[in-house]
Design a protein that fits this description.
The structure holds 2 protein chains of 2 kinds. By secondary structure, chain A is mostly helical. In chain A, about 75% of the residues lie in helices and about 0% in strands. Chain A has a domain of about 210 residues. In chain A, helix 2 runs parallel beside helix 6. The longest helix of chain A has 27 residues. Chain B is mainly α. Chain B has one domain. A two-stranded antiparallel sheet of chain B has the order 1-2. The chains are: A mainly alpha, B mainly alpha. The interface between A and B is large, with 41 and 44 residues.
Chain lengths: ~325, ~290
């Protein structure tokens, strides 16, 4: 009962905050909150794969890039409505994920991590040599120039809310139970009748679809795209970092982590080239000192958690 | 075409040398070092600084680079990797990922994003020049060094007590410990050897190709490719893996244009991974 009240209060506070900020905040603040929303969505999806399904992917930037390029090609070249273009992009991502899955699902652990990375690098080279997208040059997305900051913000917010709800909902279904069983012990789960391949595939395709959506929303904001930034490993660095410091395999972790990530990057903005160095050090220290991340450690110490799907044992 | 295949094979020698360290570390401690590429480029920059700023000749620079990298390898193993090894696969992997981010951006900060290359007398010379075939001296040198290192390393692994201790650790850590092997030290030794070879590979890469701080990613994938095609942990497999990649790249470049040559190599790698997830020589895997 107390847990439910906590949840309701938290959601109310957050909802009020997110409505008030765009009314009162400066454009700078709005921009930062928009970024937080986008990274929140990304890291939530990365966590679904890495934290729950046991698929550490270093290649999710492939889908950010495809999402961004779909938005660009469809809206600039063919005059498709921006939002429709983003959704089509997400569908393309899901199909692409489905298409490569037979190959990469044969790999596990490290092989999977690097296999996905190679796909992203291969896409980078492919787009850099593709005449239709202007090779490796910047391509400005002129259709999004007219959008106001608030529109960008609400798009990012909606994407973030969808991402959180998807994971929140998914973990409460039978698939979610299967996922957590896989996270705790893949072989035990399989013995108990969990279909590993199907469950993982479901998660992977969902994550690909969402990454496409996020990629589109991200490039609405950036307003120009090129292969080396679209398929950059930096996206994965951001997601991984947010999840590691927040807490791998928790729902709150990616949220806390991505807020911290954006704050650190903003602070480091004045010291060009330093932010990834600092992020690398922080990530190493966190893994060595508190491998469960902030929220995981907090849960172990105090039992604090809000969004967790863990079913508490009724006390008598 | 013959030219392409010969160049590809020689290039493969260089690739397998990049991969050897990774294969060794994986075979012995089951760790995939995601910072491998960046560490190699660091070795390349050390050689570059030695030759350019201090005016040393290439041999001296390689020696300095090897020493520095060996020390660094020991430090990384002792103070980072050994601490997270027993926490499972994910933490160890992510620590090396953090290290990779740190190193590549540190190099970017220090050396800027400019293209660099190590000047040497070999890079422009050809050993054989006929109508159908010309063999570049630097490619041939890399290939020979790679073969020597691989043969030398397998001899050390098979014939010496030191090699036996390392192999015992890789087979069964606890049993090795009970037999009086200091396993953490065996890990550190493996990492030191890996870093030494990688420094040599880095210098050869630097004197053959242009490089920049973010080249690490590309070479990590190449190293990984050479290792997995051959089967993780198999030294001769790595040599074959490197050659497969090298030939795929050069022949792919010849057929489809040089812009996409790496794309062809990546696709070959992905196809092999999908068909034989444990590599071509997996049956004979671990320690050879």
């Amino acid at each position: 009962m107390k847990k439910k009240m906590n949840l309701i209060i938290l959601i109310a506070v957050i909802a009020v905050m997110f409505v008030i900020i765009p009314q009162a905040g400066s454009p700078y603040l709005l921009n930062i909150i928009t970024l937080m929303c986008l990274y929140m969505a990304m890291s939530q999806m990365w966590n679904l794969l890495g934290g729950y399904a046991g698929m550490l992917s270093l290649g999710m930037q492939a889908f950010i890039g495809i999402g961004g390029y779909s938005l660009t090609i469809l809206s600039v070249n063919y005059g498709v409505n921006i939002y429709v273009a983003i959704i089509i992009g997400a569908v393309i991502c899901a199909l692409f994920g489905l298409a490569v899955s037979p190959a990469i699902f044969k790999m596990s652990g490290v092989y999977f991590a690097i296999g996905t990375w190679i796909i992203a690098e291969a896409l980078n080279i492919f787009f850099s040599n593709w005449k239709f997208v202007g090779y490796a040059q910047d391509w400005s997305i002129s259709t999004v120039f007219a959008l106001s900051n608030k529109q960008l913000y609400y798009t990012a917010l909606i994407v973030a809310v969808i991402a959180v709800l998807v994971v929140f909902g998914l973990l409460r279904t039978k698939t979610g139970l299967a996922l957590m069983a896989i996270r705790d012990s893949a072989s035990a789960a399989e013995t108990m009748g969990v279909e590993l391949y199907k469950t993982k595939l479901k998660c992977y395709v969902i994550a690909c679809f969402m990454m496409g959506l996020i990629g589109g929303a991200q490039y609405m904001q950036t307003a120009y795209i090129n292969p080396s930034t679209g398929f950059s490993i930096n996206w994965t660095i951001a997601m991984t970092f947010a999840v590691i410091i927040g807490g791998l395999g928790t729902m709150e972790g990616p949220i806390v982590g991505s807020v911290l990530y954006v704050i650190i990057v903003q602070i480091m903005y004045n010291y060009p080239g330093m932010s990834n160095i600092v992020l690398g050090i922080i990530a190493i220290v966190v893994i060595m000192v508190a491998p469960d991340g902030i929220m995981g450690t907090l849960y172990k110490k105090t039992g604090f958690q809000i969004l967790s799907p863990r079913r508490s044992i009724p006390k008598h | 075409m013959i030219q392409c295949i010969v160049t590809g094979i020689l290039l493969g020698g260089l690739y397998s040398m990049i991969g050897i360290g990774m294969s060794l570390v994986f075979g012995i401690m089951g760790l995939t070092n995601l910072a491998h590429g960046d560490l190699m480029i660091l070795g390349t920059y050390i050689s570059l600084v030695m030759t350019r700023a201090l005016g040393c000749n290439l041999i001296v620079s390689v020696i300095v680079s090897v020493i520095v990298m060996c020390v660094l390898g020991f430090v990384i193993q002792q103070f980072l990797v050994n601490k997270v090894m027993d926490k499972g696969e994910a933490p160890a992997l992510l620590v090396t990922f953090g290290l990779s981010i740190f190193l590549s951006n540190l190099m970017l900060k220090i050396f800027s994003a400019d293209n660099q290359s190590i000047n040497n007398s070999l890079s422009s010379k050809n050993v054989v020049t006929t109508n159908v075939l010309s063999i570049s001296a630097s490619y041939l040198t890399s290939f020979i060094i790679a073969c020597v290192i691989i043969i030398g390393l397998s001899l050390v692994m098979q014939k010496t007590n030191f090699g036996r201790a390392i192999r015992a650790t890789s087979d069964d850590t606890m049993a090795a410990e009970l037999m009086g092997v200091n396993t953490k030290l065996a890990y550190a030794a493996a990492m030191v050897i890996c870093m030494g070879i990688t420094a040599v590979a880095g210098t050869l890469v630097g004197s053959t190709f242009v490089f920049y701080p973010s080249s690490g990613t590309q070479y990590l994938i190449i190293a990984f490719g050479a290792v997995v095609i051959g089967g993780m942990g198999s030294l001769f497999g790595t040599l074959i893996g490197g050659i497969v990649l090298g030939v795929a790249q050069i022949v792919g470049g010849y057929v489809f244009g040089s812009g996409v040559q790496m794309l062809i190599a990546y696709i070959v790698l992905l196809v092999i991974l999908a068909l034989r997830p444990n590599g071509l020589f997996a049956a004979s895997a671990v320690r050879k």
